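Lecture notes, unit on protein representations.

Consider one protein chain, 310 amino acids long.
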Amino acid sequence: MAANSPLDLFGQLTGEDIGGTWNDDNATGALTAANVDLTLLAIGIYNFSYTVVNGNCTSTSIVPVTVEIAPEAGTATNFDICISDFTTGQTLDLFNQLTGNDAGGAWNDDDTTGVLSGSNVDLTLLSTGSYDFTYTVPALGTCASDSVTVTITLNDIAAPSASMNQDFCDNATVADLVATGNNIQWYEDAALTMLSNSTDALIDGEDYYATQIDGLTNCESSVAVAVVVTIFNTPNTGIDVPLTVCSDVTAVDLFSALDGSQDNGGIWLDTDGTGALLVICLMLLWLLMEVMILNMQLLEMLRVQIVLLS
């Protein structure tokens, strides 16, 4: 009734003389001059009379105002949900989003999604976006129909980006995995049911799945990016053993300064830039050449002896 209030009673008369007065015959308290505040009236019929006096002559007209029950579609509350929060076969009863509504109305699928059955919406058949569903209560008597719309919004965010294959040393943890996105979450399974702890040790050959969380909607991406982990054993350079040499020693085997647990295939670096490491290499080469020369001399002596004997 608020839309039609106040009601100007002069609009309900024709041909009347001016100068008359209005009377609230039922003492509703809703009359001010010629205007009736309809919001103060309950369902029923109320009379308001207009009287014009001309000398000894009096003329009165009565305007009945009938307040009928108007259709009420109620007040709607919109519904937002993250796609990642869906449960299997999840539906929404649209009546749960209405308050103060009359029964007997009908729901309409405004966007022709095909997911509406009665008042139930199959959320799992909708993709990211917003969808409108309108409830209409038909006209009643002289009162027009009433409608209200519920908007369902499904939120999602794309998966983060990451390199498909990532290599680590054997002391790596989930915290070492790399993905680009907002508030990255790592899972151990493609179904995204096993959330990893940042301190969990990475496993060689395992798949890990990353999602991200939307900073605006707080929705987690329903799709994850997969990463395959390869673990390499950390090389062992052994444990250093204190080495003391005399000043008259011209060369030393650096491996004697290790405990023997080291892996093969490493290289030595002269970290202080002394140049001594190069000298050691040259000395070893010189010793090798000396051995070769000595062997050649022995062979020559043997050949001479054989000739003399013959």
